Amino acid sequence: MRPMTRREALQASGVLALAGLAGCSGTESAAATSDAETAAGGSARGSAGSSAEGLPTPFVVPQSTIPVLGRDEVFPVRRIYCIGRNYAAHAIEMGSDPTREPPFFFQKPTDAIQLAWPGEVLDHSYPPLTRNYHYEVELVVALRGGGRDISPDEALDRVYGYAVGLDMTRRDLQLASRAEEKPWEIGKSFDNSAVLGPLHHVADVGHFHAGRIRLSVNGEVKQEADLEQMIWNVAEQISQLSQGSELRPGDIIYSGTPENVGPVVVGDLMEGHIDGLTDIAVRVV
After folding, report:
1. Are 250 and 143 in contact (CB under 8 A)?
2. Which pLDDT score is estimated for 49?
3. Quick count: other Cβ atoms within 10 Å of Cβ 214?
4. d(Cα 171, Cα 139) in Å, to the nearest integer?
5. How does DSSP assign 139-175, residue by residue?
6. pLDDT in tens, 263-283
7. Is residue 46 packed enough to be buried (19+ CB in 10 Å), middle (13-18) or exposed (0-12)?
8. Which end of the chain is more exposed for a tag (fewer CB within 10 A), N or C?
9. How many CB atoms lie within 10 A of CB 268?
C-alpha cells in the first residue's frame, strides 16, 4: 500500500473542497475536513444532507479529520481536549502551584484544527480581539479507543497516534477572564487555534515517554523541555479524563506545554519540534 501524496491526503480530508466553499486556499483552511462518510471510511451513519434517523438536514456540517503519514486514511476528530499547566515550570510562570494536584482540562471546537503540512510553511492568521497572542507547543495524542475509568496501565492501548501541535492562545483575553472568575474559553477556543501536523501511527513511532520538545520563533529557541517532565504523563492524562467523561475513538488530547510561552506578531515564523515526529512551520499573517 503506497503512502498518500500531499494532495491526495488533503483531498481525502476535504481541505480543498472546504477551501473552495470558504474562498481561501487549502493551506489556510482549517485542517482537515470532509463529509462524515468519507472521514469514517464509508461507515458513518446517514449521508450528505440527512440525519442519523434518515431525516433531511438543512445543510451539511463538515467532519474534521487529520491526515495520517504513510497511510491511506484520515483520522476523524470527535473532541479536542487540552490539559492545563502540565509542566511544573509553566505552572509557575502562569502563577500556579506546580505540585501534583489533580489535572484540569478544557476543550476546543473540532473545526479549530489547522493542518501544518511537513516541509511547508503554514499561513496562520492573527486572530481578532487580542493584542497578546501566544504560542504553546504540545504533544498531541489521538485515540482509537475509549471508555470510562480507564486505568493508566491500559490507557496507552487506546492511542492511535501522535503529532506536533500548537495550542494558540489569546493570552490577554484568557487572563482577563480568569481575573474576573469567568470561563476563559474566549482565550483558547477560536478559529484555527488548534494547529497541528499530520498524525504518525503508533505502530510506526511507538509511544512518547521522553524526548525533546521545542518551539522556535524566527530561529530563536523559545520553549525547550523533555516530555518526561510532564506532571501527568500521557497514560495518566487518558485515565484522568476518562473519570469525568467517556472517551471515544476520535478524541485527541493536547498534552500540555513547557515554560516560556510568549507572544508572536504578524510576520513571525514558529517552528515546532518533538523528537521522533515531523516538525511543523507556521507563519503569522
Report:
1. yes
2. 73
3. 18
4. 20
5. EEEEES--BSS--HHHHGGGEEEEEEEEE-EEHHHHH
6. 999 999 999 999 999 999 999
7. middle
8. N
9. 17
Q: What is the average per-residue pLDDT within 42-57?
A: 65
Give the pLDDT score at 257: 95
Residue 12 grid coordinates: 481525502
Output the nine-digit C-alpha cell for 57.
438536514
Burial class (CB in 10 A: 0-12, 13-18, 19+), 99: exposed
Cα(first)–Cα(last) distance of the chain, in Å?
38
Measure the CA–CA gap between 133 and 15, rounded to whole angstroms.
25
285 neighbors 266 (Cβ within 8 angstroms): yes
Describe the strand order of the beta sheet including 169-170 as a list of residue ranges: 169-170, 133-135, 262-264
pLDDT at 54: 87
* Cα angle: 186, vertex 165, 93; to 5 degrees: 65
Grid coordinates in use for 35? 463529509
Listed in order, the ranges of the chain carrying CATH 3.90.850.10 are: 77-284
118-137 pLDDT tens trace: 999 999 999 999 999 999 99
- The Cα 41–Cα 62 span in angstroms is 14
Residue 92 — very low, low, confident or very high, per pLDDT cuts 50/70/90?
low
Report the chain's mean pLDDT, rounded to a whole number: 86
| The CATH homologous superfamily of the domain defined by 77-284 | Fumarylacetoacetase-like, C-terminal domain (3.90.850.10)
DSSP state of 125: P
Size of the chain, expressed as the number of residues it contains: 285
Q: Which DSSP letter does residue 20 get?
A: H
Phi, psi of 276, deg, nearest 5:
95, -5
